[in-house]
Amino acid sequence: MPEEPAGVVVALCRGHRCAALTRASADGGLAECVARSSGGVLVSAPCMQQCARGAVAAVALRRTDSDSTGPALWLGGVDAADHLASLGRWIEEWTPTSDRGRVLPDELRDTVLGVGPPVRLHIGAAT
Questions:
Q1: What is the pTM of this model?
Q2: Which partner for 88 in 30, 68, 97, 124 could form a disulfide, CB atoms 3.0-4.6 Å apart?
Q3: Does a structural domain hold residue 126?
């Protein structure tokens, strides 16, 4: 039997351009929404090399005790305040035990860049 997802991972590009764009949008409260979510994790990713697409985020489900996720949904243009806010609400509403929040909100449909490989997490003490 497959293991239930433990939460959502949001990898937000923090390359120079993406970081400046999301900072200009006051981050849309994304960090607070992830903190209030059921098992959500927000990670800062190095430049994802997608600068022409506006600020980029990868969203994926993580499993308990795993250092990787399922396939990642790539979103572009999340520097727009309304997109950041929608992303935050979507992550906050997701729960591992129900279908609530599992469907991408209509406001984010035009931000989808595609589906990519899993997000690799480094679990353990930082060195």
A1: 0.80
A2: 30
A3: no
